[in-house]
């Protein structure tokens, strides 16, 4: 095994400036340092990056990180460099590739971020063979599973690459995997069952509420008025983010739109302004929030249904990372379910079963007269109490479930 050059706790303090590990981080890091193959399922914000960054610093050689999005890689790169970790990205948009390769070969990199499509190239395999490898970290590992909510065929190219270096430990990380997806990730990436480490998914400071939509602008304006801190409103389309940003400005709060179609300079500015603000409302597509570290988001609203329970959990998980009370409010319409069913009808047949199961699970969360948190946590394999005391149904038990009939109709048709 590659020697661990320093005590992990020293690195935690000196390099990262943290006084201790959080949750399962320590068990994950220990397994990795012992060279064991591991799948860490940890909610967003739980600190997955540290689980490979710390070993990358501790171990001899480079940790190769597979990451699905170039923007995400560049965020990670900046964060790693900020704490003095020697890191680089190797992507089509980097013009310093020759320099990165030279640094990698010379053993001057702790972390090398690459996209999954590189994995199939023989050239890349040779490159990896020409340097010392500490670890493979596979971020967003649910992308390898067709059961996952974000399957990326490129992730299937990873296995042969990993198997070409059987002695290099592998660490897969994901925030969002139900039991079926987890089993699939283990199988696809050649990780033994005892390598699965799951962190607690509960976010007790987030109050969940789910309401049928009748007047989106009015309902969102009321929510904004009740929550003076920064908030995110997730919209279904790019056009809707802009319309909502305009309409919600009438609440008197600063608002911005955020979506992938905006001019990159404007998008970056809106994001930076939001991160710095104490009262801004950003109306965004789901592209917003990945890699953004804003601990004081006080509410996350959905103007329509998310893609799945995983998506809901991930998006609402951006609220209240500082541990202070925060609100997650979903406004839904029967037409959301109708559209989702239509979209599922258009995807490849092999994926329809999984997509339908995800929509049904989401429907159950929307329709329940019981505890929202219980449904969420059970979805992630936890065994919660029947009542959390901090969701709409626990705080105000519904007398009759009126709107459910409509959703049921669309789910079972
Ligand atoms: P994830 O990828 O699981 O969503 P990140 O790796 O982005 O989470 O970490 C979320 C935040 O938690 C970051 O700001 C990170 O610096 C912080 N963090 C991670 N580990 C610790 C720790 N042991 N102590 C304090 N803060 C931590
Ligand atoms: Mg992460």
Radius of gyration: 22 Å
Low confidence ranges: none
State the end-to-end distance: 56 Å
For the secondary structure, the number of strands is 13
Can you count the helices? 17
Bound chemical compounds: adenosine-5'-diphosphate, magnesium ion
Q: What is the spatial order of strands in the main beta sheet?
A: 3-4-2-5-6-1-7
Please outline the major beta sheet.
7 strands, parallel
Structural class: alpha/beta
Q: Helical proportion?
A: 40-55%
Q: Strand content of the residues, in percent?
A: 5-15%
Shape type = globular
> Helices and strands, in N-to-C order?
HHEHEHEHEHEHEHEEHEHEHEEHEHHHHH
Mean pLDDT: 92
Description:
Helix 7 links the parallel strand 5 and strand 6 (about 170-175). The protein is an alpha/beta fold. Helix 2 (about 25-35) runs parallel beside helix 3, helix 13 runs antiparallel to helix 14 and helix 14 packs antiparallel against helix 17. The chain is globular. The model has no long low-confidence stretch (mean pLDDT about 90). It contains 17 helices and 13 strands. Strands 3-4-2-5-6-1-7 form a 7-stranded parallel beta sheet, with helices on both faces. Strands 8-13-12-9-11-10 form a 6-stranded parallel beta sheet, sandwiched between helices. The chain is about 40% helix and about 15% strand. It binds adenosine-5'-diphosphate and magnesium ion. Adenosine-5'-diphosphate binds next to helix 3.
């Amino acid at each position: 095994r590659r020697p661990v050059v320093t005590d992990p706790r020293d690195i935690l303090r000196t390099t990262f400036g943290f006084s201790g590990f959080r949750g399962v981080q320590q068990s994950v890091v220990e397994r990795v340092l012992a060279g064991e193959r591991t799948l860490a399922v940890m909610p967003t914000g739980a600190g997955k990056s540290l689980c490979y960054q710390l070993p990358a610093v501790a171990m001899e050689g480079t940790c190769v990180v597979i990451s699905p999005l170039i923007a995400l890689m560049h965020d990670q790169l900046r964060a790693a460099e900020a704490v003095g970790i020697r890191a680089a990205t190797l992507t089509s948009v980097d013009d310093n590739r020759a320099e990165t390769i030279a640094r990698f070969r010379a053993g001057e990199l702790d972390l090398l971020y690459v996209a999954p499509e590189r994995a199939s190239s023989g050239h890349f395999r040779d490159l990896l063979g020409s340097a010392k490898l500490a670890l493979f970290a596979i971020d967003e590992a649910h992308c390898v599973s067709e059961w996952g909510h974000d399957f990326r065929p490129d992730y299937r190219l990873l296995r042969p690459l990993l198997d070409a270096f059987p002695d290099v430990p592998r660490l897969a990380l994901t925030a969002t995997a139900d039991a079926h997806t987890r089993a699939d990730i283990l199988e696809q990436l050649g990780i033994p069952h005892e390598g699965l480490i799951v962190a607690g998914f509960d976010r007790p400071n987030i109050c969940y509420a789910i309401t049928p939509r009748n007047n989106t602008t009015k309902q969102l304006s009321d929510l904004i008025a009740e929550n003076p801190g920064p908030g995110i409103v997730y919209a279904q389309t790019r056009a809707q983010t802009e319309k909502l940003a305009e309409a919600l400005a009438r609440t008197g709060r600063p608002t911005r739109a955020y979506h992938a179609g905006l001019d990159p300079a404007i998008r970056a500015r809106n994001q930076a302004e939001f991160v710095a603000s104490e009262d801004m409302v950003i109306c965004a597509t789901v592209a917003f929030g990945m890699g953004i570290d804003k601990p004081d988001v006080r509410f996350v609203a959905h103007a329509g249904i998310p893609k799945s329970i995983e998506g809901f959990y991930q998006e609402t998980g951006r609220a209240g990372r500082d541990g202070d009370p925060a609100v997650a409010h979903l406004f839904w319409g029967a037409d959301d379910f109708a559209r989702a069913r239509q979209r599922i009808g258009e995807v490849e047949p092999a994926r329809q079963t999984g997509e339908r199961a995800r929509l049904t699970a989401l429907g159950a969360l929307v329709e329940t007269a019981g505890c929202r948190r219980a449904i969420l946590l059970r979805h992630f394999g936890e065994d919660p109490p029947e009542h959390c005391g901090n969701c709409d149904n626990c705080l105000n038990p519904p007398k009759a479930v009126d709107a459910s009939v409509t959703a049921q109709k669309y789910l079972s048709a």
